[in-house]
What we know:
Layout lengths: L5 H19 L4 H44 L4 H7 L8 H17 L6 H7 L14 E3 L2 E20 L2 E16 H7 E4 L4 E4 L12 E15 L5 E8 L7 H4 L8 E4 L7 H15 L3 H13 L1 H10 L13 H4 L11 E5 L5 E5 L8 E13 L4 E14 L5 E12 L4 H9 L1 H11 L1
Antiparallel strand pairs: 1-2, 2-3, 3-6, 4-5, 6-7, 6-8, 9-11, 10-11, 11-12, 12-13
Helix pairs in contact: 9-10
Amino acid sequence: MKKFPLKLLICFILIGILLTGCSLINTSTKEVNTLIDKEGKDNTNEEDKDIEENEEEIDILGEELLRFFRQYYSANEEGIIALNAYPVNINDAYVESYEDYTDNSLKLLEGFMTEGLEKNLQKPFFKTDVHFPRFVKVNGNVIIGYTDVKDVHYKIIKEEDRDLTIEVDVDVKAEVITEKKFNELFESDKKTRYFTKKNEKAAIEDSDKDEIKVRCSYVLEIHKNNIEEISLFTLKEKGEVSVPEENRRNIINNDFLKRINYLESAPLSDDLLIRDFLYTFMNQDKDAYQYYQYAFDADVDTYKAMVYDLGIENYLLVDEKNYQSQFPNTILPTKDDIISINMSKEGIDINVHTETSKKTKVYIVDFLAAAKLSDYNASNLKYRYYITLEHDEEFNTKITRIQYISMNPSFDETENESEESGESEAVEEITNEE
C-alpha cells in the first residue's frame, strides 16, 4: 500500500480551512451581488411605478376630454343651426331661437357643465361662453356635421387648484357637401344671424356627401372634481386671427381648423393599382407616347382606343367629356430631350395627400427612373405626380385624374422642399377644376 503524499495532504487541509472560513462569513460575494441587484431592481420598480402613475393621471384627463368631445360633436344638422343662431333684437324670432338654443345647448353639454355655465345657458343671450360646432368651409366644401372623434391632444396653459386652462386639438371626421350644394340648400337669415334651410323637407342625398378629417383647436376653461371628472366654464375656438363674434360664425372663418390626412397610408389595393399602372405606362417606348399625343388631340373615341392599345384600360376611368383634364398630355414622361425611361415597381413611393377623403383618394407619388436621352446619354431622374382614385359604378377602384408635378435630376433635400412648396397650389387647381 502506497503512502499518501504529504504535500497533497497539506493542500487538502488548507482548502478545508478556507471553505470553513467562508461559511463563517454572513454573506458570500455571490449573495452580496444578489442583494445589490435586488436593491437596484426595487429602486427601478419604484421609479417605473411613479412614471406609470403620472402617465395614468395624464391619461385620465385625456380620456375625459375624449369623452366630452364625442358628446360635443354629436349635434346634428338641426342642432348646429339652433346652437349658432344669435338674434339681433328681442322679437318673435329671438324667443323661438332662444328656446331652441337653450334646449340644444343643455342637452349637448349635459354632464359637462359647471353650475355657473348651466345658469348662463338658460339666460337671455346675444353671445355665448361656448363656441358650438358649426358649418365651416374647407377647400371648396362645407362641413355640415361631425361623425367621429379620432384623437385629442392637449396642453395645460394655467392651473389653479382644480381649475385648468387648456389648449386642445381635436382630430374629428366631418361630413361635407360642395359649397355649391350648400348654397342651394341653405340661406343666411338676417334675424337669427345664422343659416336656415330653404326647404325643411329637402334631404341631402348620400351621393352628395363625402367625409374628411380635420383638426379643430380650442381653448377650454375647465374644473376637475375629486374623481377627475371635468366640467366646463368656457370653450372658445382658437385661431391665429381674432374674429368678432358677429362675424365668427360665417363659414369662411375657418382659422381654428385645418384639414389633416384622412388615411395614414394607402390601402394595399390602392398601392398595387398605382404601382401596376405606372410600371405599365411609364415603360412604354417613344412611339407609344407619340400615339398618346395624337389620340389626346383627336377625339374621345380615338383616345379610348389608344388606352386599350397601350394596355392601361383596366386602370383608368375615362370621362368622355373631361378626359383631357383628367389625363393631360403633361403626364407623359418623355419631356425635353428624353426618349424613354425605365423604372421599377420597387422604386415607387406613395404617400397620402391631405385632399384625400372617404370617396376620393389623392396620393403623392414619387418614383426613380433611368432616362435615355436623345444624345444617347443616360440620366437618373425623380418624377412626382398626383394620382386620384375613385370608385366606378360597379364600385371598382380606378384612376380618375393624374397630374404631373415635377421632374428633377437630383434628390437633395432642397429640391424636395421646392417640390413640396408647390403642392398646395397644384391641389387647389384640382379642387377648382372639380
